[in-house]
Amino acid sequence: MTGELTAALAAEYAAIFAYGPIGVKLTGAEQTEARAAEAAHRTLRDALVLALDASAVPPAAPAYTLPEPVVDRAAALRVAVGVEEKAAAVWRAALPATTGPQRRQALDALTGCAVRATRWRRRAEVTPLTVPFPGKTP
Q: In angstroms, rounded to a whole number, what is the distance separating the alpha carbons of residues 8 and 10?
């Protein structure tokens, strides 16, 4: 179970890192949405750090390379969709390895990632807006 949660922590660090460059290329409501998404990932990260410290598992290093340069709004939206899809995949993988409150946390995180990815797809005018099984890798 701790391996999946450590992977989730790494995904949360990656998402937090990515929303910095994403946010500077967006304006208005999109920038507000990026800030809210970053805050959601920070909340998940903080909960994981507490859970992993309780289990004496070292946290993942906060390092991440963006999948592409965020040079404009279109790139920011693509990266935002990708960040949420990758985080969803990690949280989905954590579901079978967790129980009780940790499983609830994983399911809530997966759901949050799926909703945010859908919102970013809508903003980017990407179709389909939703995917049949969020977090499922091909």
A: 5
| Amino acid present at 26 | L
List, for residues 94-134, the tens digit of each pLDDT value: 999 999 999 999 999 999 999 999 999 999 999 999 999 99
Residue 117, domain extent: 2-124
The CB-side HSE value for 60 (13 A sphere, CA atoms) comes to 19
Instruction: For the chain, give the number of residues.
Output: 138
Whether pTM > 0.90 for this model: the answer is: yes
Number of structural domains (the chain) is 1
Sole residue written with tokens 């949405």:
33
134 within some domain: no
DSSP annotation string for 26-78? --HHHHHHHHHHHHHHHHHHHHHHHHHHHTTPPPPP-----SS---SHHHHHH
For residue 59, the domain's CATH number is 1.20.1260.10
